[in-house]
Give the backbone structure.
Amino acid sequence: MSLNGLHKLSYGLYIISSKMGDIYNGQIANASIQVTSDPATIAVCINKKNYTHEFIKDSRAFTVSILAQDTPMDLIAKFGFNSGRDVAKFDGIEFKAGKTGAPTELAHCVGHIEADVISSTDVGTHTIFIAKVVDSVVYNKKEVLTYDYYHKVKKGATPKTAPSYIPSSANHVCKICNYEYNEKVGDEKAAVPSGTLFEDLPNTWVCPVCGADKSNFS
Amino acid sequence: MSLNGLHKLSYGLYIISSKMGDIYNGQIANASIQVTSDPATIAVCINKKNYTHEFIKDSRAFTVSILAQDTPMDLIAKFGFNSGRDVAKFDGIEFKAGKTGAPTELAHCVGHIEADVISSTDVGTHTIFIAKVVDSVVYNKKEVLTYDYYHKVKKGATPKTAPSYIPSSANHVCKICNYEYNEKVGDEKAAVPSGTLFEDLPNTWVCPVCGADKSNFS
């Protein structure tokens, strides 16, 4: 059975954030939709393994920071390819705590939505949290970052914990973030010319998306 | 409380279809996402008032036909602004019945996903159906139609039963499909020049989106 059609669904790219105790945490997600208009409710789909899942279960609230198209890849890498168990996600980030206490990123978003969880649905590896919107702001008129633009133009990768993750059959794939090193292309960010074999990359070379070293590549 | 941020979530535009008895039916929806990758499952959010809701509850299966950017507006109007209670949705439509019996539109889609419902979540006015993917095909390399493109470029409207519906405060709004007649713009489709007052439109003029006559405008 083919799963190719699943790649053709359209999404945005968001930071889903929450607060537990004194800790702010967040992660990248694409699966967030409005589910009713009266009252306004939204749904987000979060992997049970993710630290943010614990936060939302505990606090019963979250924010959706809606990323702009010009969001730098290192912000996406920080929130998308690191766990809040290892990294203080909001350290060094410009943010605001909302009505529920959950934080929203301010420097690279077009707006945010803040919501109180009213129910949750277990869907196996993930939970769908359904939440009533308690606040929502638009900051600017920038283009939003779509999942399609992230993949096609920004050449972004999909973490293994995403609902839309598909295992790769390619060589030289980062086990952390699923980035594929393509020998025909090289790595512009690290000034590695096209045609450079993976084995010829210096040991100081790191994944351009998540910063993992060569030993993390399959 | 502002709800403006909700407009900044990204979606595609899909025909969600199902079969009940010998009848094929379908509707336009934007709220469809993948929720897990192993096994591959998707979610769709459907208004309880819609005829398609009955079909999915009865057959426990549906398809997602993923519309291409060049989909004609009259196809969207047929599936989006008419009820299957009044109109035989698949009459005159090129389609294929899948493994579950549910039909997929063939002439204007980039691909489809077919799925068996495994659970449903009541979210008030709507139901979220969670379904295991049983088939999925990509037909071509056309651009997909996003909800943003539908609004901004195709000037499409949002039906009242959509999760993302927002009541309009404008004059001259179609009560059927929520299309707004703008006197400054006119109606290119009907060769109505810009600056034409609504009251000066001929009685033969109909809504360019859904075909409703002038008496259906508020």
